[in-house]
Specification:
This protein is mainly alpha-helical. The protein has one domain: MFS general substrate transporter like domains (Growth Hormone, Chain: A), CATH 1.20.1250. Helix content is 77%, strand content 0%. Helix 1 runs parallel beside helix 5, helix 3 runs antiparallel to helix 4 and helix 10 packs antiparallel against helix 18. The chain is globular, with a radius of gyration of 21 Å. The C terminus is likely disordered.
């Protein structure tokens, strides 16, 4: 993998972009809370961002299937950098109306949809098929490393009063520009040294592939197979219920007079579980895929309940570390079960459909968390989330097709062994 300069260049840019998003995910709710003192509006900000991502999801899949993925990544990173820079300028000049922040939320959500679908295909266009799992494991280091460093960095940068708390937004804009430059430099890097490349999609408009199911081709693929449908439903439930739990954690810790830098550090240390979980991917994949999904979701229920206990930031960090251990295995599981099985000409739409479906309830989830915090103590809100997720996991565990699901190509005997 280290000899594949195209992949490593893409990985560096994606790491910078993910780090910037992780910093912004801390800075935006802190800014909204500072401006409005309303947890409900902080939740609404995240809901608007999620709505933008959902509305753009299916069109982003069509675009990714028809046009050059690298060009799409460059354009979306340029757009996200511009939007973030506008927010920074608004803060510096003392102009902080909510419409600016909520417009930024919608545009950033739209950009995330286009970037996510295109980058998934771009990775497959530069990595040999036999190295794809290895590349995805390295990509887990990017995502979890950024999740580890981002909250702590975001909290620390927001604590800097210079430039009216605009420093984290300037940092995020710079991270998007770094990703843009990396995508542009890929053109000048040599291809992978050997092996077949997993070509994801045609790179020019193709009428026949565009008509193959149209914009809904990915949704039809996911919903037409019982195992994929059940797995998608479970992930939808977990994402919906847990969409705003970080906001609840922030409120809980702020009520305990924990400094913003320490809040970010606690959230970041929890993300280290994702890094520790990357080497566990092969071990956890010895379980049947449905059993693995249900086990990780059940652990998430337990962690949500324990987060309601006000033992301080390091208690939060330890619980989040624990639940994050299984996340890399789940992400690779989704790739193996869903994305690799999709027809290459429809893979962008399948990726976009998956992102759209599993995020379908996130706007309601984050807005609901904000409302819970508006009318309930933070600990009661967290227990409410745990109870709702427990009900969802109990329902999905009754789906026989999910419990008995097997890996593609896996024989019954080897699975039972």
């Amino acid at each position: 993998m280290w000899r594949n300069l195209q992949f490593q260049t893409l990985w560096i840019g994606a790491s910078a972009s993910t780090l910037g998003v992780s910093v912004a995910d801390i800075a935006y709710p802190l800014t909204v809370l500072a401006v409005t003192r309303s947890p409900a509006l902080a939740g609404l900000f995240a809901a608007v961002q999620a709505i933008g991502m959902l509305l753009a999801g299916l069109p982003a899949g069509v675009l990714a299937d028809r046009y050059d993925s690298r060009t799409i990544v460059i354009c979306t990173e340029a757009g996200r950098a511009a939007v973030t820079a506008v927010v920074a300028v608004a803060l510096i000049t003392g102009w902080r109306p909510l419409p600016v922040l909520f417009t930024a939320a919608a545009l950033l959500g739209i950009g995330q949809a286009f970037k996510g679908a295109a980058q998934t295909l771009l990775l497959r266009s530069v990595v040999p098929a036999e190295q794809l799992t290895q590349a995805l494991t390295q990509d887990e280091v990017r995502m979890n490393g950024s999740a580890l460093a981002g909250p702590a960095l975001g909290g620390a940068l927001y604590a800097v009063r210079t430039l009216a708390h605009a420093v984290p937004f300037l940092f995020t804009a710079g991270s998007f520009l770094t990703a843009l430059v990396s995508a542009a430099l890929m053109k000048f890097m040599p291809r992978a040294p050997q092996g077949p490349v997993d070509r994801a999609a045609p790179r020019t408009p193709n009428a026949s592939s565009a008509r193959a199911g149209g914009m809904l081709a990915g949704v039809q693929t996911l919903w037409g197979q019982p195992v994929l449908r059940a797995a998608t439903l479970l992930i939808m439930f977990v994402n919906t219920i847990g969409a705003g739990f970080e906001l609840i954690i922030i409120v809980i810790l702020r009520h305990q007079a924990v400094p913003t830098g320490t809040i970010g550090l606690a959230l970041g240390l929890g993300a280290a579980g994702g890094l520790a979980g990357a080497p566990l991917v092969q071990v956890l994949h010895r379980l049947r895929p449905g059993v693995l999904l249900l086990a990780v979701a059940a652990l998430d229920v337990l962690v949500l309940a324990l987060l309601a206990v006000p033992f301080g930031p390091w208690w939060v960090a330890g619980l989040m570390f624990t639940v994050m251990l299984g996340l890399p295995a789940i992400r690779v599981l989704v790739d193996i079960l869903v994305i690799r099985q999709a027809p290459p000409a429809q893979r962008g739409r399948v990726v976009a459909a998956l992102m759209t479906l599993i995020g379908l309830g996130m706007p309601a989830g984050v807005a609901g968390c904000g409302l819970l915090l508006q009318y309930l103590p933070a600990q009661a809100a967290m227990l409410t989330l745990a109870s709702a997720e427990a009900a969802a996991v109990a329902y999905c565990s009754t789906r026989r097709e999910l419990r008995q699901a097997r890996w593609p190509g896996q024989a019954v005997e080897s699975a039972d062994a």
